[in-house]
Amino acid sequence: MNALDYFNARLEATISPMDYLRAEQTAPEQYFLIDVRNGPNHVRSLTIKGANIIPQQELAKRLHEIPKDKEIVVYCWDVWCNTAAKVATFLLERGYKVRELTGGIAAWREMNFPVTDTSSDIVQIDSCGC
After folding, report:
1. Signal peptide: which range, if any (predicted)?
2. Sign of the Cα pseudo-torsion (19, 16, 29, 71, in order)
3. CA-CA-CA-CA torsion for 27, 28, 29, 34, nearest 10 degrees?
4. Distance from the CA of 52 to the CA of which of 8, 21, 25, 101 falls in 20 to 30 A?
5. 115 by DSSP, 3-state: which?
6. Which H or E run includes 56?
7. Over the stretch 31-42, which tens digit does the pLDDT of each residue have?
């Protein structure tokens, strides 16, 4: 693969926070944004506004919730996280059109784009129940 092929493939497989925000504002019916981060609810309480929360570990059993007629945009924590890439591969293998949001929620927050804080919805448990 030469450099041009690499960059074209990268642009086809990803979308920047700025480009997603503009595209979603222009044609919201075309996109389905998914927060695929794993981990306890309290560490995932801040999400991109309008995102559907389907952690990677629940994806296979919740596949029916993801529309095939929309472009799926997945995100995870940051540039160092590959969970969104794993989810994108899983969905692409099943016929979905998918792109990864570059930089994850960290890049989104860095740009001060709209988020939702669900921490008030989280019930605190005194014990882990282990």
Report:
1. none
2. positive
3. 140
4. 8
5. strand
6. none
7. 999 999 998 887
